[in-house]
Structure formats: structure tokens, C-alpha cells
Amino acid sequence: MNPVTKGYLRLTRPANLPTSAADILAGTAISGVFMHATLGESSSVNNIEHILILIMSSVLLYAAGVVLNDVFDYKIDKTERPERPIPSGLVPLRSAAIFGGVLMALGAGIAFLVNPLSGLTATALGLVILLYDSLAKHHGFFGPLTMGTCRGINLLLGISILGSFNYWWCVSIPIVYIAAITLISRGEVYGNNKKHILFAATLYASVILGVLLLFVTADLNVLQALPFLVLFAILVYRPLMKAYKINSPENIKNAVVAGVLSIIVLDATLVVGFSYWWVGLPTLLLLPLSKFLSKLFAVT
């Protein structure tokens, strides 16, 4: 592959993109699409098309966010991550900014093909992404909160597929979860973040208990979703415990990577809870895809 082309790909962090698609699948499940779909109905065909459009919108917006994040971090990366495409000179700063802007415009624009609510939700997501990249990420409290809000709105983008926001308060799940990952990442370069890890462990627990409470109180498919939730807990807590015991940058990075990729398992859990186990499997299969891509491209 051409080095410049690979440089642009690296900016989009391909390994993370399936996690964005998983958010959309979870959101569409929450909307009730899978419970009411009947094979062969024209409405079902339309729903499939709309799901694919929203996935593309989400992936483009996510890619735009990480590209523009590197644009805003150019000066910091010259010192801390000089090997990244922009500070290394592989991708010019101006070209990266244009690239990110085009991705964001496309991501927000195509969501209007589904319905006006989806388009407005995608536009709002783009604006919050810009807020995080430019300002919020430097704040100790609002940084994690804004990053989590991006994921929450992404879930809401999936929920909007039918033109309404059913179970809109489910956005609190990814907001809390991503805030936890963002806290862990605070020690990725220099280590020494045990307090953040303990707080993140508490946030992880609140997410797991919150999902269980949601499934039980709303009389959802808790029994079929439970194995998915247990898998999620194992995947996030094992590297987190290791990072706490040996608080090195490498272990912290591994905990962050595990947290990011395990979003897929959390989303699959939500899909199963709001539909059936076999509907959640395609979402879960995005995990090996992410893991494969993570061997080729950086996650953080």
C-alpha cells in the first residue's frame, strides 16, 4: 500500500470503526426495528437500507472525529507521538484538516436520507465531536463527559431510525462507559493513574448493573443477554486489573484498547436484550474484525 494512503488510513483508526457500527446496531435494536421486522416486507427492506446508511454515517463521523483530533493535537504529537502521520510529515496538516472536514460533512449529510431526525442527530454528533476535539478534551471533567456524550448521541443516531427516540435515556450507558475509558487513557503516556483506574472500575460496574436493571425492569430478554454481559465484564476487567497492579503505560494502553474494542460486546448485549440472541451475533462478530484491524493500525 502507498505510504501516503496508509497514512490517511492510520488517521481514521480503522480498528475503532466497527465499534461505531456496533453502536448503530444497538440503537436500531432499541428502536424496536428487529422485534417488528418481518422477512419479505417492503418496510423490512427499507429498514435494512436505513441501517446501512446510518452505519455509514456513523463510521464517517467517527473517522472525521479521530482525524480532526490529530489535527488539533498536532503540536502535542510532535513531542509525544512524533511517529503519527501528521507530525512525521507523511500527511500535511492542511490536507488532514480538509480530509476530516469532508468526512464529517458526508457523515452528517447522508443521515438525512433516512429521516430528518436522523440527519439532525448526526449533525449534532458532528458538532459535539468538534467540541471535544478542540476544547473539551483538555478539561479533567468535561473531557470524559463530552467523549461519552459523543457515543451516547451515536447510539441515539441508531435509535432515530424510525423517526423517534424510544428509550432515549439508554444513552446514559455509553456516556458513563466511555467516560471511564477516557479516564483510564489519562495515564497512557506516563503511567501513574491508579486513582483513575479505580474510578473507572466503579463506572464499569455501574454500567453492568445499569444494563441488568434496564433488562429486568423493562421485561426484556435478560436471560439470553446475560452471557454477552458476562463476556463484556471479563473483557474489560481483566486488563484493567493488570493495569492497576502494574501501572505501566503499556498495561494502561492495553486496558484502553480492551475498553474501546469491548464496546462491541456491550452493544451486542443491548441488541440481544432488545431482540434475540441470534440478532446479536452479527454485532458480536465485529469484535474479531476490530481485533484483526488493531494488529495493523493503532487503536489509541
From TrEMBL:
<dbReference type="Pfam" id="PF01040">
    <property type="entry name" value="UbiA"/>
</dbReference>
<dbReference type="InterPro" id="IPR000537">
    <property type="entry name" value="UbiA_prenyltransferase"/>
</dbReference>
<feature type="transmembrane region" description="Helical">
    <location>
        <begin position="222"/>
        <end position="240"/>
    </location>
</feature>
<dbReference type="GO" id="GO:0016765">
    <property type="term" value="F:transferase activity, transferring alkyl or aryl (other than methyl) groups"/>
</dbReference>
<keyword id="KW-1133">Transmembrane helix</keyword>
<feature type="transmembrane region" description="Helical">
    <location>
        <begin position="166"/>
        <end position="185"/>
    </location>
</feature>
<protein>
    <submittedName>
        <fullName>4-hydroxybenzoate polyprenyltransferase</fullName>
    </submittedName>
</protein>
<keyword id="KW-1003">Cell membrane</keyword>
<feature type="transmembrane region" description="Helical">
    <location>
        <begin position="197"/>
        <end position="216"/>
    </location>
</feature>
<feature type="transmembrane region" description="Helical">
    <location>
        <begin position="252"/>
        <end position="279"/>
    </location>
</feature>
<dbReference type="GO" id="GO:0016020">
    <property type="term" value="C:membrane"/>
</dbReference>
<keyword id="KW-0808">Transferase</keyword>
<feature type="transmembrane region" description="Helical">
    <location>
        <begin position="51"/>
        <end position="72"/>
    </location>
</feature>
<keyword id="KW-0812">Transmembrane</keyword>
<feature type="transmembrane region" description="Helical">
    <location>
        <begin position="93"/>
        <end position="113"/>
    </location>
</feature>
<keyword id="KW-0472">Membrane</keyword>
<dbReference type="InterPro" id="IPR050475">
    <property type="entry name" value="Prenyltransferase_related"/>
</dbReference>
<dbReference type="InterPro" id="IPR044878">
    <property type="entry name" value="UbiA_sf"/>
</dbReference>
<feature type="transmembrane region" description="Helical">
    <location>
        <begin position="21"/>
        <end position="39"/>
    </location>
</feature>
